[in-house]
């Protein structure tokens, strides 16, 4: 009987010892969360990039809409002024042949489009994606009305039209003409930013960096200088 008791007691001691030696289940090493953290950070950077691009697109669209609205108002004002300034001439008695010849001459003489009509036609064609007429209208506007205050804007949208057709070298010439000939124009800073973007697309980082440096030095308070695309900076940082 004593042997049985000792045997049971020894078995109980061995069982308790094994329970104490076994590590608790909660002591298991947790899996690493580093890959998940990296993925979340990458997603945050992508979201920030998308937000920046959306803001820049909103600024561009808003500027285009404001300019188109201003031009439409200008056209209406020009029409109103023309009607008010048209003199009333006394009617002269003319022979039937003379009157007919005069009317035919007036009808056969083509009238040159006004500066506003050319500019607005070019801008409307550009926004509609009809690029060849946009090029023709903007170019005619620049040639026919070289002293018009909208000449810098015409250069800018002409450059955008060539850029939309993937004619980057011609676009560089047009944007360069704008920043060189009209450095104080409202579109000069935007044109300077376009030059940096085109040079980056052409894999010419030195020219792109030089264009950005000029943008920041000459137009530090401009919208273009404050909203340089993140992807452009990233492409030039490598």
CATH superfamily of the domain at 114-238: Tetratricopeptide repeat domain
Low-confidence stretches: 85-105
Distance between the termini: 86 Å
Strand content: under 5%
Tell me, rounded to a whole number, the average pLDDT: 76
Rg from Cα = 37 Å
The name CATH uses for the topology of the domain at 114-238 is Serine Threonine Protein Phosphatase 5, Tetratricopeptide repeat
Structural class label: mainly alpha
Give a written overview of the molecule.
This protein has a domain of 125 residues: Tetratricopeptide repeat domain (Serine Threonine Protein Phosphatase 5, Tetratricopeptide repeat, Alpha Horseshoe), CATH 1.25.40. With 238 residues, the chain is mainly α.
What layout of secondary structure does this protein have?
Elements: H1 2-21, H2 34-85, H3 96-108, H4 115-127, H5 131-144, H6 151-164, H7 168-181, H8 188-201, H9 205-218, H10 223-226, H11 230-237
């Amino acid at each position: 009987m004593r042997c049985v008791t000792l045997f049971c007691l020894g078995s109980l001691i061995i069982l308790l010892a094994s329970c104490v030696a076994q590590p608790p289940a909660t002591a298991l090493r947790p899996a690493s969360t580093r890959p998940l953290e990296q993925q979340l950070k990458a997603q945050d950077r992508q979201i920030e990039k998308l937000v920046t691009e959306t803001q820049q697109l909103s600024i561009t669209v808003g500027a285009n809409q404001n300019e188109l609205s201003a031009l439409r108002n200008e056209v209406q004002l020009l029409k109103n002024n023309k009607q008010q300034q048209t003199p009333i001439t006394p009617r002269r008695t003319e022979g039937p042949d003379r009157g007919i010849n005069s009317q035919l001459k007036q009808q056969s003489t083509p009238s040159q489009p006004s500066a506003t009509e050319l500019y607005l036609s070019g801008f409307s064609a550009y926004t509609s994606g009809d690029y060849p007429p946009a090029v023709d209208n903007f170019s005619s506007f620049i040639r026919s009305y070289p002293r018009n205050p909208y000449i810098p804007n015409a250069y800018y949208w002409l450059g955008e039209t060539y850029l939309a057709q993937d004619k980057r070298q011609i676009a560089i010439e047009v944007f360069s003409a704008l920043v060189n000939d009209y450095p104080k124009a409202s579109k000069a800073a935007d044109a300077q930013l376009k030059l940096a973007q085109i040079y980056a697309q052409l894999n010419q980082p030195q020219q792109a960096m030089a264009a950005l440096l000029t943008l920041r030095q000459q137009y530090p308070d401009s919208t273009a200088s404050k909203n340089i695309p993140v992807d452009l900076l990233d492409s030039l940082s490598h």
